[in-house]
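Entry for the shared binder. Reason: the reviewer on the internal report wants the predicted structure included alongside the sequence.
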Amino acid sequence: MKRLLSMIILTLILCCTLPSPALAADGGYGGPLVSDGARCLTDEESFALEDIAMELSQRYRCELYIVTMDDMGTEDAYAFAKDLYREHGMGFGTDKSGLLFLLSMARRDYALVAYGYGNTAFTDYGKDVLLERHVLPRLAEDRYYDAFAAYLNTSGEYLAMAREGTPFDADTDPEQGKTRFLIKLGVTLLLPLLIAGAVCLLWLRRMRTARPARAADQYIPAGGFRLTGREDTFLFRTETRRTIEKKSLGGVTIDKDGFSGRSGKF
């Protein structure tokens, strides 16, 4: 009952907000993209985010939503966000492409769900980076406008990459590229130096018992030296190893309802 009441209240909030004629006429949802039922934002901040969301949604034909509410009346934020998306007919075009970010303030729950082309542009890795690197740290400090602005701007970058044919993923993340380069540089330069230093130290320790001698008479037995056998003994072995880099499979995990996403606490 509490969950149903939350849905009704949220529906009223969505319906009372002025629709977006431009998006509706072009195959969009037609309702507000930013619905701040929990009053986390000032009116000016809400209007500014709405403008950003509308511009990005029109440009990339994939709608970006922000919804906040006091209490969703359920423990499962992911399921609630999916129901909200379907019941309000969200999404751009016939495939209902979009990304919805939901906050429920009662227990500080969040959910991020993608549908349609949103599943292509927002991979599993991409959603994790979007949340953990850009959004959740700001939410933890109650910087709601900054968190939502980061969500929209980063989503715009992901959509731009996807439209160019390279969705943001583990293999296309510029930060991962920098990290891999530094690791390879360290292995290339530092590892050989460490190995050479260890070998030199080992040789130095073995040489500490050596003493200079003027003659080798003590090593020659009485009656002379006679060679009776030969044997090759290898004292050291050099082994070279090469790291085979494993590529991430990347991609997206889509559930039976056609959604992908994340949920948790902030």
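Summary line for the report: The first helix runs from residue 2 to 16.
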